[in-house]
## 1
Amino acid sequence: MVDVERFDLEPTRPAFHGLLGDVAADTMAGLSTVEKLPYLLQVFDPDRVSTRMGGSLPEVGRTLSGWPQLIGDVTVGAATVLEAIRRIGLDEPLASGRTQIDVGDLLGELAEPAGAAQPVTVEEPATSAVSTGLGEVIDAVVAAAIRAPSGGNSQPWQIEATTENVTVSIDPARTSTMDVGFRGSAVAVGAAAFNARIAAAVNGFSTEVTYTEPGTQRPLEAVVQLRPGGDHDLARWHPAVFDRETNRNHGTGATLAPEIAESLARVARQHGARLHVMVDRDEITRTARVFADADQTRYLTPTLHEEMISELRWPGDEDKDFGIDVRSLALGPGDLAALNLLRRGDVVAKLDDWDAGTVLGDDTFNRMVSSSGVATVLTTGTTLSDFARGGAAVAAVWMAAQEFGLTVQPVSPPFLYALTDTEFGELSSKYADELLRLQGTFNALTGKRSDESMVLSLRISMAAPASVPSRRSTVFEVTAG
């Protein structure tokens, strides 16, 4: 990349085309190569960085001492700089701007710069409120159901309503590779059914939930039958249905009080599940390493990487009612720019070729070790109905934790729903053994019994409020008369 900035002609122009904001030269002067990387990422256009250079970036400070360059590229760069100096010295036209010279692909095909790349900025979130003032009870029940959590905010359900019941079923079209056997979708359906029961209760109805597993086109359905009567214990959770949120901010690491941990475990038991609450710092650190290593395999497995990136919603993207808004990831501008680079499959493939990429799990590790606790919901059995019942417990524990003033982030490593060697192979043929090993380590940390299944882990923290709420599809898109 050749970058020209004519301060002699424009004394007041911002440095680096304004891509670094008001960062002063003094700020940059004393930084190490690693410390400069977040700034460099904001200056470079990640879509135009070569595959090898993009793959080298995460390894700087680890397997690389600096950003490597081929001697040929350095020579071409020097010649280009000399030409620019010559033009300035002879007062020939030379504008501020940028162009890319790729010796391998673009030599002799220089083009005018398309314009300065825009930095990734964190915009103010648009307000998105879910109305709880719907006139009809069924509409209120559906409105609560769609507020349930789901992996990647995929909302993997179909919701049908009559005047007597609401049916929440798995939508096979919204599954993913990590949703092994639709088990993650079943967890989401169970949470949605639990929310529906709460909304019915606050409107004076008691409920009965029946789970059935009809077949391939409808792997699981939960029928929430409404009857007059009400349920005060459920009704009190109604505000929490709409207050529940995912908070990915770093925690303070403050210790979780034993009585709070026991209270959360009691909530899980009330819903037929077991909750293992991890508060020991050494155990949390070991769990953080397991989840970080699992995230690395997720990046380095092409299918998992593609699906992970497809979940992200960037400013300007459409279909924001599904997926994860990148503004909710609690990343600084430099980290967002790095994520923008790591969206590229060729870059992470190069890291895999080099047997590199340990940095890919760093964000997960750092967030996990900042937690006050790691709460894991376990259910007895392996059927989709068992996972759905576990999903109801997840929703209840999540809301109870927030009632204590705690923040919650769900954490679902790739191995979470794999139960057999075949399923591990389908997750990642190259890293199946590694994922199996990591699952075994995590099972031991949680004391998982042979008759239990993992439902979901929750990172419990004391942290700043979340800045961006998760969006949902509207009631009218998911209900049927």
Note: Confidence is low (pLDDT under 50) at residues 115-135.
## 2
Amino acid sequence: MFENANILANAYNALPDLDEADFQLNSRKDGCIDFLLSIIMKHGKHEFVGIRLLHKHNLIENGEIMAEYHQVDKDGFSLITRATKVRDWSSNLRPNSWIFKNGEWTPMEFSNAELLKNPNVNPSSEKELFQELADAINLFEVEDVIGPSLMGSDLIDSYRPDGEYMLVEQTALDDRANILRYAKIKNNMPFKAVETHWCMEKDKEKGTTIKSCKKICPPTDYSPSKHNGTYIHKQD
């Protein structure tokens, strides 16, 4: 999986930052996310696959990947994706998202398998699904900013507090990492959030399957002194 680690690093570094990715998506044809989710629904994989806004938080070096693990500290549960040397990871790492460029899928980020609902879903195991997604991504001209992303496991959901909470993503520049923590979503939040991950999930009240945003990120120019529940302690 990591034989071409330098290619993976170059592909990740070529991603736009958050604001540029959001701008590019909003500049394209309407209905892109809904259409891609409908393809996933048609193939019956909506429990395992969603759609994400492809963007970078930092640059990585050759031989590095962006790899996700979880942590529970005094501030609660967090998902941390950080630049990591490939040699430092065990064999339970799996791609969690991909970009379709030059006629092929390239992994963008990786997760410990325990953090994914079905870590065995990938472009090779679901060829028809990923081909339809590739065709639609090209049709909407969003190949630089939109790609399929695997859904998080029940382990992640088990830490979600009761109430209106969502995973909010922010950058830890010194660590070359991005951190997701559950934060309470309010109508008067001090920033206009950028949606970064969408899926189809069951509405418990209505019993129907609906489009849902699972992750948001503050815009780049929002840099509070306190990270609103997404602060990460530096790791030794």
Note: The two ends are 27 Å apart (CA to CA).
## 3
Amino acid sequence: MENKNEVPLTNMLVYGQEGEEMVFPMKTSDLKIGDLIQVEAGEQIPTDFKILVGELVVEKDGKDLIFQKGNIAVAPFLVKKGKAKGYVFSAMEDAIYAKKE
């Protein structure tokens, strides 16, 4: 059973002066347009983001959807397989599928 007090986290990426990549857990609700994030298998896409590197496979209506480099990966799909990095494209409340509900 899911804990109602648990805050959803997303992996935010930051690059140091030497170009080293650092990953920090961040509250999904704190994501801003332009933040660099990483999403991988077993995680939920937190908000719409443009994929810069990698590929994600999600399921919609029993069919696999593939998000590749250059695509906008849309929330709130659960990632079946893959790993991708990209820039947050919209705030959570403005996500493509959030508008349909």
Note: The two ends are 24 Å apart (CA to CA).
## 4
Amino acid sequence: MVTCKECEQENPDKHKYCFECGASLRSDVPQREVTQEQADKLINLSFAFEINDLVEQAISAYSAILEGHPNYADVHYKLANAFEAKEMAGKAISEYQHAIKLNPNYVDAHRKLGELYSDEGLYEQAIEEFKQVLSIKIKHGYADVHNNLGVAYERAGKLPQSIAAYKKALSINPRYAKAHFNLGNAYLAKEAFDDAVAEYQASLSTYSRDPICYNNLGIALSCQQKYQQASAAFKQALELDPKYARAHHNMGNVYYELSEIDKAIGEYREALSLDPSDTETQELLERLTELRTR
């Protein structure tokens, strides 16, 4: 290992320049200088690459900047964005962490890192990042961060905490459709069907073109045995997305409960044509078809 004389960072013997500060590690290697003007040009160039979806070039441009300016938190953040676009989660996490190390109050880096942790199933780490954002900017209302915190709690199996987080998001932005939807899902999981229906309806009052929300509203209404209302909700879901296999399945369930067997069979067949791997629908279709032939 070679110790950098500038920052005392340990580097592998083969390195010519310090990984941390970019200083030369050997007397026979000249110092590599990147002027502020050059760095600014590279940043502008890398933005252009990203706009044109040339992510590989963006990664190269950001990496070139960091060779001369390794302590640019913003560039580490942008490099993380590029790695994330390439679905290179490990490298993206590392760059977000590096940005945060350089700037512990980097709200966007904490936020993006939390979202990435959640996507990767690292829910406890996600929770900590979202909490960190909220501790940095307590005076500001981050409704989306509270919502994302709720999602992480819910995926981690912490339903009471998730409900509290969604409610906090809605106290900041009462018309936050996604938070109403997520709170409805949490209530549905809790079998609090009245509350679930109310939240789905609140979500749809803000954004009325979400087929999944209509589908989930239909499920909650079905659980209350309000089959006519559930039918209307599933029909709305299918009007928005005619190829929504699960909504066809759920519509079939409602028709069965209403003793409209032929219509139920038709919906199950449609669901199965859209999703042939759905064994539950296959079993229901076989059962009803056999019942109909008796």
Note: The first strand starts at residue 2 and ends at 3.
